[in-house]
Task: inverse folding
DNA sequence: GCTTTTACATACTTATTTGTATGTAAAGTA
DNA sequence: TACTTTACATACAAATAAGTATGTAAAAGC
């Protein structure tokens, strides 16, 4: 497995690429929040605990750039914007569920509740 | 799902806990390198591309502290130290494979080779 | 006419992660 | 006797990620 670049960054293996798509503190919570269908910006804010505007908007932009989510703007005042998973985004959900499940297993093993 | 702490850090959800165990640039490559059995320190260095001593040793310490790997020291000169997966570490391999597979899928989709 | 709402956007600071350079012990090798 | 090997360890710097504070437009509500 050789190195490769994607969107101007160098990667050493497929794992790093996966993490570019779903890694960091907020991407997986955002993707999970969209699993049932379109959600507006303000509702994402309310649904995802502890997230702030800068993180939400910058991660939404990045997920859009990577083709994981779609943005839909309604020309109303005040504005309304919906976000939804693309096909690629939907494919990531199964993996994110597994990552979440492993975390729950760890909580059990470590006696965390 | 409320917040919780583990080893002195605060977590908001199980995903973050999983990433504490297998996340970062080097933990998954290290764990995969141990999947076939015990490997010595020096061989890990040679097997994992681009890793440096500081990253290897600090991630090994962290993985050990989290119960993912075991360390076995042979009292020889120069020293020999083997690392191997614990049961918990073995359980992580299936998940890491899935993360790797998703990355390979992304490479296909994005036309990276 | 002043405040609120919505969905951002930017500047700046802080925290976390990663990388570089260098050092160590103690025996074996040239 | 000087150099190499092994498995670390530490100080420090650079890079990346995350968080804080503040601002914007334009219409609707009080």
Result:
């Amino acid at each position: 497995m050789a190195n490769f670049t994607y969107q101007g960054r160098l990667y050493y293996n497929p794992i790093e690429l996966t993490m570019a798509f779903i890694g960091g503190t907020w991407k997986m919570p955002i993707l999970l929040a969209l699993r049932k269908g379109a959600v507006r910006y303000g509702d994402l804010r309310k649904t995802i605990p502890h997230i702030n505007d800068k993180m939400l908007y910058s991660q939404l932009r990045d997920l859009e750039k990577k083709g994981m989510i779609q943005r839909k703007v309604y020309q109303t005042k005040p504005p309304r914007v919906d976000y939804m998973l693309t096909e690629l985004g939907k494919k990531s959900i199964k993996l994110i569920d597994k990552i979440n499940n492993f975390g729950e297993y760890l909580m059990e093993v470590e006696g965390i509740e």
Observations:
- Strands of chain B lie at 4-6, 9-11, 39-40, 69-74, 80-85.
- Chain B has one domain: 26-109.
- The interface with chain A takes residues 4, 6, 12-19, 21, 23, 25, 28-29, 49-50, 88, 91-92, 95-96, 98-107, 109-110, 112-113 of chain B (CB under 8 Å).
- The longest helix of chain B spans residues 87-109.
